[in-house]
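Anyone? Bumping this.
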Amino acid sequence: MKPIEVTFFQQPTLELARHLLGKYIVHEHPRGVLIGKIVETEAYMGPDDRAAHSFGNRRTKRTEVMFGEPGLIYTYQMHTHTLINVVSAPTDIPNAILIRAVEPVEGLDLMKEFRNDLPMKQWTSGPGKLTKAMGISMEHYGSHWTDKPLYMAEGEHVASVSTGPRIGIQNSGEAVHYPYRFWETDNPFISKTR
DNA sequence: GAGAGGATCAACT
DNA sequence: GTTGATCCTCTCG
């Protein structure tokens, strides 16, 4: 499995969010290779998006990586979970795309173990779940999606894409209704709806 | 150095 | 529908 071309990340954020669907996330974990196909994403449009951490060009130690080049990995902690993003847009424009769900492709035994023997549909059907199933944590903050051991690879063609409002954001004014969520239509591994 | 809060999940009633 | 878990970062002093 080879990392994807770095030029893939050099497209407008909303297009990138849509084109991420079907790509593979590959993690060459010490205990085995883990692969998941991306089936759900959410775009966060930086300066103009009340729901984004980088709203109003807010620049802190946490959001710093979003001001870097597209294709960097932005991880952060949410309660007991780690969430993972793809940095988008040219340097100094802090956009990011949250990976909300993947479909298990390889390394199923290890994912099952990481997810405490839960039913397969619950392994990766949410942003906090998939990071646990694939062994992703804060140590991946700031590395690039084209670098091992955690990288993105060409995947499968996605026949049908659905669009809708994002999940889990509140008090974000109009931003709550923006149709910045993309998922593969009818895929069983997408996360919950509102 | 203390306190608050969040792009979540799972286990309740 | 509600709530506890319990982690990192940000803000204020």
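Late reply, but here is one note on the structure posted above: The mean pLDDT of chain A is 96.
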